[in-house]
Amino acid sequence: MFRKTAFPVVLAFAAVIVFAGGVSLVPDTRGVSATELDPALEACTVIMVGREASTDGSVMSTHAADCGVCDFTWHHVPAADHKPAEKRRLYNIDQIRTWPPSEGGKWAMVLKDPTAVEIPQAPHTYGYHHAVFGYMNDQQLAIAESTIGNVRKISNPTPSPATNITMLTLLAMERCRTARQAIKLMGSLAEEYGYGYHDGGEMLAVSDPKEIWVFEIMPVGPLWTPKSGKPGAVWAAQRVPDDHVAVCTNESTIGEMDLGNPDSFMASAHAESLAVELGLYDPKGGKPFSWKRAYSPTEGGAASTEGRRSRTWRFFDLVAPSRAFRPQTPNMDFPFSVKPDAKLSARDVMTLTRDKSAGTVFDPVRGLRGGPFKNPNYYKGTRLISVPNVEYTTLTQCRSWLPDPIGGVVWVALGAQDTSCYVPFYSGATEIPGSFAAGDHFVLDRRSARWAFDYVDFHTQVAYNAVIQDVQAAQKTWEDGALARMAEIDTLAGDLYKRSPREAIKYVTGYGINNAQNVVDAWWKLGDDIWIKYNHLGMYDAEKRRGGRIPTANPDWWNKAVRAFDVLNEPVKK
Prior knowledge:
Layout: H1 11-19, E1 46-49, E2 59-66, E3 75-77, E4 80-81, E5 87-91, H2 106-109, E6 114-120, E7 124-125, E8 128-130, E9 134-137, E10 142-147, H3 165-175, H4 179-193, E11 202-207, E12 212-218, E13 234-240, E14 245-248, E15 265-267, H5 271-277, H6 291-295, H7 311-319, H8 346-353, E16 390-398, H9 404-407, E17 409-414, E18 423-426, H10 449-460, H11 464-499, H12 501-533, E19 538-541, E20 546-549, H13 556-568
Antiparallel strand pairs: 1-2, 1-14, 2-16, 3-8, 4-7, 5-6, 8-9, 10-11, 11-12, 12-13, 13-15, 16-17, 17-18, 19-20
Helix pairs in contact: 3-4, 10-12, 11-12
């Protein structure tokens, strides 16, 4: 997923991408500054952690749905049994487009745009949680997404393809228990019915309690039709080693593949031959076939783009500092995955999703960039792992030592990571809080959980370096509390599951709803408290009924910088 760019140089380019269905094209940076690259660079970061790279043995993945205007509502689809003759309709689903709540919202309107394709319904479909994509089902299958783009000649913005990336994730949630099953299902359906229209090159992190894979899929060009007799998609998948971590920052990461090793690689049968046919790879050139260099090459890296492509370097530098990765390294040359210096906990991964490159050359508050309150969200010249235009961020945990309805957890942080709060929902939960299913960007709705987090975020921006301390204290209270209680809840639910799976599922469902409501209530109150405490850029103590000055307000360096700017811009006296 990606958001529309604000840079005027590429507005027309962005429009083409959106109307082509979100297809991210290979960026051509000739004549474009490092701060005006492909708008797909403004999009999602996916972090992946193998089970032996985590502190508790869980397989983890994250997804930051960085869009800024997309639907942020969450929904649960219950498990169901189906009759032998039933069919499953496929729908056109645009990642970006939304409709007003008064018209039913996105997921009601999607049903009014079916494709012509119906496939046989599965005898049983699993229950799952979804937002823009399917994220976790009651079998502990988990998914995270990142748009990676593709070379122009394989884009297919026509309505001929019947599958798109959202539809594929929903089908995987309904029908699959393992990552391998999901990859094979999504790949085969896309080949048979075509892939594209609203989407181009996409990456999915697909995980289960045992392993995590990177799955990348591309369209095959605008001339494909169902009558062509050719596969309507091309795809590849690579397994993240169990003791490794990996990242996707809107750039393809699968390089050379050993398809003779099915434990680590999978791909469509024509993955290499299509590249040869289209002139994207020359087998006589003396170099082995590289998936990413053929279908979705990315130029530059952190240093050469002045931080616009710094997320890949930043991730590897954070998780494996002993490797001393250099920001001058082209992103295409980074490894697919790496063994971290230390195993990662769920708390560690949450912290990674909030990273804003503090202390690096790409720090958004370096010099004058952050203003007098050192706000990291002002400067847009560098691209960070954590950005303010996030719909929500997910952290999924798949845990093999627990029954599936209890072993899977999807943590959801609505809105910007730095001012939001992660709340857990178990994979077997049969209900999502109503406040998580309500609201959109264009109508204030106090019944919507998202607006509670936006309420805090809006007030934080005014005096960021002071207010963020209050927000972080609240995050510590609620997130650390949920993390600390998880072992107890797991045990209680596990014991209950042995006696009555139905009661165990009811228990974890209730916990998720009650905890989420408590957090939402706390965030509404936090927003009120911040408003009162920092009103008029002052510091108000409600208990002592006294006002004062924000300690970080009007720093000397800021006043001097303003005066220096004024001097430089004073009109010349004649």
